[in-house]
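for the writeup, i need someone to sanity check this before i put it in the appendix. the sequnce is what the collaborator sent (i think, or maybe the updated version? ugh). structure was predicted straight from it, no edits. if anything looks off just tell me and ill rerun, i have time this weekend
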Amino acid sequence: MKKNVLALSIAAMIGGFAGAASAQSVFPNSTMTPPTATALEQSEGGAGHILVVPYFTSQNDNMSVFHVVNTDTVNGKALKVRFRGAANSDDILDFTVFLSPGDVWTGSVQGNEQGSYFLTNDKSCTLPDIRGQQVQFVTDRLPSGADAAQTKEGYIEILNMADISGTSTAMYKATKHVNGVAPCTSDVLDATLSINPLDVASVTAAKTSGFDTPSGKLTADWYILNVNQTTTFSGAATAIAATGGNGRGNFVLFPQDETNSAANATNAAQLTADPLLKAGIVKPVNFDFPDLSTPYLAATANPEAQASRLTQAVANTGVSNQYALDAVISAKTDWVLSMPTRRYSVGADYTKKPADAGYRVFNDGVVDLSGAAYFTETNTYVNTANGLICANTSGYTFWDREETSKRNGAVISPSLLKGLDFCGEVNVLSFNDAAGKSVLGATVARTNVQVGYENGWGAINYTKALPVVGSSFIKLSNSGGLANGFSGTYGITWPHRFAK
């Protein structure tokens, strides 16, 4: 079968991946503390170098808020924060954040007629300086003619690019809070626009200014608040830790600008597994880096090895959770099924129509431990009606609370499929909600499933392991609550249980 696949040999990738211990990093790191991390692991303790908020939304009057905590009380952190759309994981907003030691940074996603906008009133430094501003999400990389709703749902990537150390250094002084406010000295922060982490001299200068290799220790929490409906859902970000030695990764602080001096097309092959950036379908520029596939470990052979290790850390063979549809309390349920590393295996080429050959662009070098690609032409397809790339599942079962079950026979609406597939990067599965008035008000990548039970639990299995994270969102209402002077609406969030 003819594929639109990058000229990347799985055999060659496996060779680099298997021999990672002796591979040479593309990053010189120079005089900085040597990177020592050799593995990526999903952190049970919730702290790590990479954080993923599985879902944000501004649909249906929802506001999504998140808090990032630097639990390192000695070193500051330089972070890349990137928002990706729910449809096919396109970059819709990214910027750099500088945290002090022990700092907490907060921000929110809200909606208006133009889509979503980001707002932070936090005193920590950002580049560009967006504090106190409504920053509209960007549609440049969405399909031509995409409506505002395409920016109203997605997920968030947060990556520790570098530490900030040395109390007398310029960067430490510029970002360390003084009487509760960081100075955010503009000429010091703007100097980061000249950093090239691929160049020895530039990295040496960055070390002098106060930067060092990243050591993680980040946590994050999120909540989705609907004031009009007096409902809140909350949870913790998925944390990935770079482990081994003292857990330091590569220095990967790229300029937050749209030039391509450090991240030109030649370098892109060394910096990302994103098939659209590697093929030049989307022109790579500095702000595209780092992404979650940029080589981060002490001796990661290439971006495919990085993306493989990251995907392996979160991949599972199926998820299970509860649902509630009790009419007496007006119960509703949505499941969020987010795949935050899928973009490094397959992307959508918007220069083509969804029905065209080559709309799916693959990178077959992102593989599991057996050397098999996670996403292929066999286990994915395109929904030509909306351009979403879909991943196959192998089966599902829904139970009630009394052990009765129904397998693969529930009616899927609006799809005519007999299976329950994940369409979009962040699929929202609504229960018994053909009218589209679900808990989260999702519209970008939503599937409805009709189950024959009022309450119970369900399990979904895939044709092969996939990087799925997320939660069950259950909304309950007490019809007599408001009349008696107390809130009558409640939100419950349960993270998915998964099988490796």
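Confidence is low (pLDDT under 50) at residues 1-22, 411-418. The two ends are 30 Å apart (CA to CA).
thx in advance!!
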